[in-house]
Design goal:
Blueprint lengths: L3 H12 L13 E6 L2 E7 L8 H9 L7 E4 L14 H8 L3 E4 L11 H8 L4 E3 L3 H6 L1 H9 L3 E8 L4 E3 L11 H11 L4 E5 H7 L16 E5 L9 E3 L13 E6 L1 H9 L5 E6 L8 E2 L16 E9 L2 E8 L3
Length: about 325
């Protein structure tokens, strides 16, 4: 029978369905389990309501009193104009046990939800789940540091080029890799390219997958100049504080934008698509990031996933933090 960690991992996978439509609320997942069987499940819905816990409790109906509630984030403890606090809903339903994957850093909840559940006589366990924290990465960064979670995407040849010397770059990677990029765009709140790339390529940066066209993120250009209609402009000096309430920012390049975010240590995830081609004297994927010694480049990234997409390879790295 699955244990707490496995059920929490399932709740985290369920939470992914809410991203990014749940904004400005975090995408939370909740599962109710009784006698090894799921009797209710939910994830944060579009616009942030209903919350995952409310949906799971409504789905379960009878039997909640014998169930364990697995929720990726501490249930909210504050009442808003949009609905009751999830802590109150859980107390009213009285599950046998609550397992929480991550404490909510929002000062309106931040341990209060857990304390109130325990005061009501409901056993609570916080397991500090890696899966739960990963599913909430954007929310945690936005709440704690006031910035979005940044994914940098690079599509290169085997020798690290993103275009010929002439600027020709369509297409380095194949159809499967490009479809994966579009699916990743659909999970972002905002998408960014450098001003040079915007002027040279006039990219659409939309989602062109059947059924997901409406999920195209807001478009940003890293430039000191004005942005064209339908775009937002941000300068490199403001890059860490911009993007409103966006939790997930997807940076698609070019070399200057990539270098700006890397040099500022603002890249949390690096998605490297590599095509089995060699270009030679072309344009590099990343500009100067200010390294003075080679030792400074080591111990920064951990490979967390690798997969084949047609004939291309995708390597996903996460930034190592002290």
């Amino acid at each position: 029978m699955p244990g707490d960690a496995a059920w929490m991992q399932a709740a985290a996978a369920l939470a992914a369905r809410g991203r990014p439509l749940s904004r400005p609320n975090p995408a939370v997942g909740a599962i109710l389990v009784a006698d090894g069987r799921v009797i209710g499940r939910g994830h944060t819905q579009a616009g942030g309501r209903p919350h995952a816990e409310a949906q799971a409790l409504d789905c379960a109906g009878a039997g909640v009193q014998n169930a364990t509630l697995y929720v990726t984030l501490e249930p909210c403890a504050h009442v808003s104009a949009r609905g009751p606090a999830c802590t109150d809903l859980v107390i009213a339903a009285r599950p046998a046990r609550v397992v929480i994957g991550c404490i909510d850093p929002d000062p309106r909840t931040a341990g209060t939800g857990i304390a109130r559940l325990r005061e009501a006589g409901i056993p609570v366990e916080v397991i500090d789940s890696v899966a739960a924290r990963a599913s909430l990465a954007g929310y945690l960064l936005r709440t704690r540091e006031g910035r979005p979670h940044v994914t940098l995407k690079l599509a290169t040849s085997l020798d690290g080029r993103i275009a010929l010397a002439s600027g020709e770059s369509r297409w380095i990677t194949g159809a499967a890799a490009r479809a994966h990029v579009h699916a990743t765009r659909a999970r972002a709140d905002a998408i960014l390219v450098g001003g040079g790339t915007l002027r040279a390529d006039a990219p659409r940066l939309d989602v062109r997958l059947p059924g997901l066209e409406a999920r195209s993120p807001k478009r940003w250009a890293l430039t000191r100049g004005a942005a064209p209609e339908g775009w937002n402009a941000v300068s490199d000096m403001a890059a860490r504080d911009a993007f409103g309430t966006a939790q997930y920012l997807y940076v698609e390049g070019g070399a200057g934008a990539a270098a700006t975010f890397l040099a500022a240590d603002r890249v949390d995830c690096l998605m490297l698509y590599r095509a089995p081609i060699v270009i030679g004297a072309g344009r590099p994927a990343v500009g100067d990031i200010g390294l003075d010694r080679l030792a400074e480049a080591h111990d920064r990234w951990a490979l967390v996933e690798q997969r084949l997409l047609g004939s291309d390879t995708l390597d996903i790295y996460e930034r190592l933090r002290g």
